[in-house]
Amino acid sequence: MRSRCSIVMLLLVRATLRGFLAIGAEPVQKRKVVLAVDNYGGFSHGGRRISVFADGSYEDVVYTDVVGSEKERRGNCAFDSKAGTLTLDSDKKDGERLFRTSYDGKEYWVHKDEVDRIKKSMESRLRQTSLRNKR
Fold this sequence. Notes:
The chain has 135 residues and is α+β, with helices and mostly antiparallel strands. Helix content is 21%, strand content 37%. The protein is globular, with a radius of gyration of 22 Å.
């Protein structure tokens, strides 16, 4: 009987604390994603996922198949949908520039020197590890 009362009291205290903590918490605002690309990595190769937001910012996540291995980077970017270019850290001199290119009905986002290379039939590894539009 005593252990049941302890469990009930623990649950009541937990619920009360959760309620108090929720009162001061602000809701997380969802930002509008205008581009989401991923190379679907993990076991065979390192993963990378980039989300570009309507406000001109981005979030770049590098990950592996190991739990807790994610590394996140954020910054400003320049995205030109018509030209098919994405420049991460556009406000810095050493920003990363990616170009959209297509092969076999899929869109890839690669560095300038990979735009033509990715279209060669023998470059399956490059296509596997390159960023592409999220499914």
